[in-house]
Specification:
The complex is a heterodimer of chains A (about 240) and B (about 400). Chain A is an all-alpha fold. The chains are: A mainly alpha (about 240), B alpha/beta (about 400).
């Protein structure tokens, strides 16, 4: 995947290396593109699935619209098991499942597969926590007006919690960027891989630092966008 | 109310029991009650008395566990989920905390029940404008609930509850979060809804003032049971159950409580009597005539007369001076028309209100425990409320 010859050609001259940015810049941009692609896909897939699982957790809670102790307990335990696993171990551990679903364990798609699963579980808990704080009174009011349970979910529960959900999703973005830094172990490239391979392993502090700046800017931009969207939604 | 029209809401031995860890809580226990079309019916009780659960049995947010609830001719236990949703569109509801959708504007909040009912958009918009004009909030159309005052929020709640032209409006502590002036405005609006639109209103409250101002009839609830029921005037003028008496005492502060009575006795050595004043008798002139006829001198030392549904009601406490036999003559004569409570003199007090020995004989110690105690809310009752609220959401699974 990577243009390995460029690395071999670079002089191994220790900390004081003069970085040849005419070679490194395209490499950096390519890895930035990979990170954005992996993060974007994982957020899309994990966001949708996480919203569904999070809603399921909330709705099956005691006293809620689809109260169901068995489903709630199973989901709750599953989320608790998966979420604390360090991602670098998780991505290796689900190798067989990745192979079965994606067909290979090397490259961007296997990385996206693992990241989407972890994102789903992480987001589901965020969704649940934000929904739990919803005022049950508005749900009762909608029920009293004759709204069906599915209508209540679509027109009351999600819209009323949209602001906090957007902020939660923004928070998630940072976690997913963090995960993507470990995608190098399955040969998926990306900014994390770039910083380790060209910066850390070659004692090129300059490259490590530039990559860091790029990631910080990326996260700042995402947080700014998320805050702006949430503010627009929460005109209260 | 004519007895020939069938009731619009009828409870027949209806109960709602919740199972909790410590056993069964009877939130509503074997209630039979009929609410007539076009009236404003009050249900009063302390928190935990079961009144919130009772009102939610009318729109089946809380299905009865036994007995029958009939609304507009339908036995609720015979209706399926979709029929119940249809029925709920004919029953408006307003809440203590307003329960407006924070993410929607005032207009879109009022529009919500119309969306649920499947009304076409153009028609919805027209109806919303009508309703906002009715509640006087046309200029707040595009505002969000967070930008409104409590009274305005409740007006939006009322407009929303009226959107689908319901036959019944349920008001669950609808003024309890409002200040006295706003409470009056909202109650006036409810009275207007009842008068102009002919909508039956069921008002749940713990404030007797609300009953006094707008209710035609009232039921008093305690520990899940209806302990007294009648016209508002009846219940105010002749309260029978102790709980009712306590509620009446909060709304009409005409009778001296134990502390006040002790202070009256310390200031007035005369013979004290409390005379009930109502429209059928016991009015001021009768009292002064009786005093004159029996050669007794007297003056008013305490009391108050107010209106219940535009009819006068209250009581006056008099200090009488004269021969004991003459004073007894006055009491006997007045008792032909009204209720007279004989309180005796400071030297020989009579515990006419049943305040207990402390109140009658040891004035200095009253403040400690002479006040009639409010019933302590049992822990189980508190549990019942929480449970009933959490049950609401999963209600239709059962």
């Amino acid at each position: 995947m990577n243009t390995i010859y460029a690395g071999l050609a670079a002089p191994i001259s220790g900390l004081a290396a003069d970085t040849d940015w005419s070679i490194m810049r395209p490499q950096l941009l390519e890895d930035l593109g990979k990170t954005l692609y992996m993060v974007g896909m994982s957020l899309l897939i994990g966001g949708i699935l996480g919203l569904i699982v999070g809603l399921a957790l909330y709705l099956t809670r005691r006293g809620n619209l689809f109260q169901n102790g068995v489903i709630y307990t199973v989901l709750n335990i599953l989320v608790n098991i998966v979420r604390p696993i360090p991602f670098i171990i998780f991505i290796a551990a689900i190798g067989p499942a990745t192979k079965a679903v994606v067909g290979t364990t090397l490259g961007e798609r296997p990385a996206i597969f693992a990241m989407s699963i972890m994102t789903t579980f992480a987001f589901s808990r965020l969704v649940e926590q934000n929904l739990v704080s919803l005022d049950p009174g508005v749900i009762e009011a909608a029920r009293a007006m004759g709204a069906s349970r599915l209508r209540v979910i679509a027109t009351v529960i999600v819209p009323e919690a949209l602001g906090p959900l957007i902020l939660g999703f923004t928070f998630l973005f940072i976690g997913v960027v963090d995960m993507s830094a470990m995608a190098g172990v399955v040969g998926a490239g990306g900014l994390g891989d770039f910083a380790i391979r060209w910066g850390y392993q070659r004692f090129n502090w300059e490259i490590t630092f530039v990559t860091l700046v790029v990631i910080v800017l990326l996260v700042q931009a995402a947080q700014f966008l998320g805050n702006w969207l949430a503010r627009r939604v929460m005109r209260r | 109310m004519s007895t020939s029209t069938p009731p619009i809401v009828e409870f027949r031995g209806a109960s709602k029991h919740f199972t909790v860890k410590s056993g069964t809580v009877k939130a509503v226990d074997d209630v039979s009650l009929a609410i007539n079309p076009g009236e404003i019916f009050g249900v009063i009780g302390y928190s935990g008395a079961g009144k919130s659960t009772l009102v939610r049995m009318i729109n089946a947010l809380e299905p009865a566990t036994s007995g029958t609830v009939v609304v507009d001719g339908h036995d609720l236990s015979q209706l399926g989920e979709s029929a119940l949703r249809g029925l709920r569109q004919e029953i408006g509801m307003i809440f203590q905390q307003f329960n407006l959708l924070q993410s929607r504007t005032v207009a879109r909040n009022v529009e919500y029940p119309l969306e649920v009912a499947g009304v076409p958009r153009a028609q919805r918009r027209r109806r919303v404008d009508e309703l906002l004009e009715f509640v006087g909030l046309t200029d707040k159309k595009k505002a969000f609930p967070s930008q409104l005052s409590g009274g305005q929020k409740q007006r939006v709640g009322i407009a929303r509850a009226l959107a689908t032209n319901p036959k019944i409006l349920l008001a669950d502590e609808s003024t309890s979060a409002l200040d006295p002036e706003t409470t009056r405005d909202v109650l006036d609006l409810l009275a207007q809804v009842n008068r102009d639109l002919g909508i039956t209103i069921v008002v749940i409250t713990h404030e007797m003032d609300v009953v006094k101002q707008i209710c035609d009839r009232v039921a008093v609830m305690e520990f899940g049971k209806v302990v007294e029921e009648g016209t508002a005037y009846q219940v105010f003028s002749h309260p029978e159950h102790p709980a009712t008496r306590r509620f009446v005492a909060t709304a009409i502060k005409d009778k001296p409580d134990a502390d006040t009575l002790a202070r009256l006795r310390s200031r007035h050595s005369e013979h004290l009597i409390t005379v009930t004043v109502h429209e059928d008798g016991g009015h001021g002139r009768r009292i002064t005539d009786a005093l004159h006829d029996h050669n007794v001198r007297g003056g008013i030392v305490y009391g108050g007369i107010s209106e219940i549904k535009q009819r006068p009601f209250g009581s006056l406490t008099w200090g009488l001076e004269g021969a004991a036999a003459d004073i007894q003559g006055v009491i006997d004569e007045l008792r032909r028309y009204t209720t007279v409570v004989d309180l005796g003199t400071a030297a020989h007090p009579v515990d006419g209100f049943g305040y207990g020995a402390d109140a009658a004989f040891q004035p200095a110690q009253h403040s400690v425990n002479a006040q009639p105690a409010q019933p302590a809310q049992p822990v189980q009752q508190a549990g019942a409320r929480t449970n009933s609220q959490s049950q609401i959401l999963g209600g239709d699974q059962k």
